[in-house]
Protein: Holliday junction branch migration complex subunit RuvA
Amino acid sequence: MIARLKGTVDAIGTDTCVVDVNGVGYLVHASARTLGSLGGEAVLHIETQVREDAIQLFGFTTGEERDWFRLLLSVQGVGGRVALAILSVLTPSELQHAVAAKDTASVARANGVGPKLAARIVLELKDRAGSLPAGAVVAPVSAPGRGAVADALSALANLGFRPMDASRAVAEAVAEVGDSDAGALIRVALKKSAR
Structure:
């Protein structure tokens, strides 16, 4: 199995690149985010898939992104191309936050992911996603009842924030000013979102 490639990027296509390693060109499938970061010399973490009719290499700039790819593949109905499409629109941190916040709309933004598949991804990954590191992720906030946090989440939703973004902004605000004053939470959340 190939686990890592280090070489020169020969060509970059829509969803693939060719990495030359000592004269051998490897065709690697990658997310738009990964392809956008490539140039000259590259080191890619590789997930190798062996099928009856093909051997495919999927490349990632970080091990964290590769781990999320593997986790996405464990969901029924998600293949390599769909997993790459999801990782093209969401960073691993954003994906972990979307799963934790049950934000199916963010997951459904990826090409080939409809509302039903997005709901299945969130449902199946909610328990397993917490085991993966995701950098500096703020724990999502939930609003089971009424209170300052619930009011702040509702206000941001009414302003057009996606659930994932509203949850992240309010979580950061709670960490800064506490959860007793909805007005303060909304002001801080809006300031943090404007950055």
User: Anything to note?
Assistant: The first strand starts at residue 4 and ends at 12.
